[in-house]
Design goal:
This protein has 305 residues and is an alpha+beta fold. The protein has helices at 117-128, 146-156, 167-184, 200-213, 220-227, 231-242, 246-264, 269-275, 281-292, 296-304; strands spanning 24-25, 33-39, 44-51, 55-59, 64-71, 77-78, 91-94, 99-103, 108-115, 140-143. The protein has a six-stranded antiparallel sheet with strand order 2-3-9-5-7-10.
């Protein structure tokens, strides 16, 4: 199987070009308290913070951030734009590489959902059939959405983040939150014109081919020949159309097949690995843990409970 490049991790840039007096980065804030945090997969992470009376800037150069004020925030405002003030139930959407500057008031608690750009685009393609090239997140400050807030408060905030038993439910709720965000926060404004990428017909042919042949080694040359493109141009155009590489797309198919077999059958992990196109059980387990966040055996146990 071809090598798979890992997705991005959560990380905050510690440098800023627009520093103001007495301003510090979010990650370096000494008054910030991280109450809890968890990584569901390489593409999805959560954190619950408390902070007060701080002057800081926020830059996330790895992933997008959707933030909800759980309590407080009445005196908190941005210093780089005319933003108004925060309050419980207010959302801020901070796209990857955006920069914002803040003056925090009295004690406030807020939850951050971190998610990768590719993951969101793949979800938008799967759920809404939105071309990944047409989706670009805007910056939102102190916006409201009752449906998404309810998912934050009544599902994620009440979950046991450190219990493996809630892992699958938390991942499902996180996906629902992202779908709700796409539906309700006015961020599916489509960009145009669209250039490049595979035609819908060719993209469907290539994806169907991988679905039918996931159990064996699939060579890049096969897919490029199917699309009648050079391997280089095929890879570039596939990524534009699908928000992931052909290798990552094939891996995702295999992982979904592993999930089905692990949950529905009592076959050994070694047999399932071979059935789904992996070299061995260890090979399967490594990629399964990377994309799903837990091992295949843990997934089987949770599916049975």
């Amino acid at each position: 199987m071809p090598l798979i490049k890992p997705l991005i991790d959560v990380g905050l840039d510690s440098s800023s070009s627009l520093l103001e007096p007495n301003e510090i980065s979010f990650e370096q804030s000494t008054s910030k308290i991280c109450l809890r945090q968890t990584s569901l997969t390489e593409a999805l992470s959560w954190a619950h913070y408390q902070n007060e009376n701080d002057r800081l800037y926020y830059v996330n150069d790895k992933q997008h951030t959707l933030s909800l004020y759980m309590s407080g925030g009445y005196e908190t405002h941005r210093t780089d734009v005319d933003s108004g003030f925060g309050a419980p139930g207010k959302f801020c959407l901070m796209p990857k590489d955006s920069e914002s500057h803040w003056q925090l008031g009295q004690t406030q608690q807020f939850m951050h959902l971190y998610f990768s750009d590719d993951y969101l685009k793949q979800l938008a393609l799967k759920v809404f059939d939105i071309d990944p090239r047409m989706l670009q997140l805007p910056e939102l400050t102190f916006t409201n959405d009752a449906a998404t807030e309810a998912l934050f408060r009544h599902c994620m905030a009440t979950s046991d983040w450190h219990s493996g038993h809630d892992h699958l439910a938390m991942e499902q709720v996180t996906n629902t939150i992202l779908v709700s965000m796409l539906q309700n926060m006015g961020i599916t404004k489509l960009m145009s014109p669209i250039k490049g990428g595979l035609s819908p017909k060719v993209a469907a042919q290539v994806c169907d081919y991988m679905q039918a042949n996931f159990h064996r080694q699939v060579y890049l040359s096969e897919l490029a020949e199917l699309a009648q493109l050079s391997e280089y141009h095929f890879c570039r155009m596939f990524k534009q159309s699908m928000a992931q590489t052909p290798q990552a797309y094939l891996l995702a198919i295999r992982i979904e097949q592993v999930k089905l077999r692990v949950a529905k059958s009592q076959a050994s992990m070694a047999d399932i690995a071979l059935q789904c196109g992996f070299a061995n059980q260890s090979h399967m387990g490594r990629y399964f843990k990377r994309l799903v966040g837990i091992s295949p055996r843990q997934y089987r146990n949770l599916s049975a409970s």
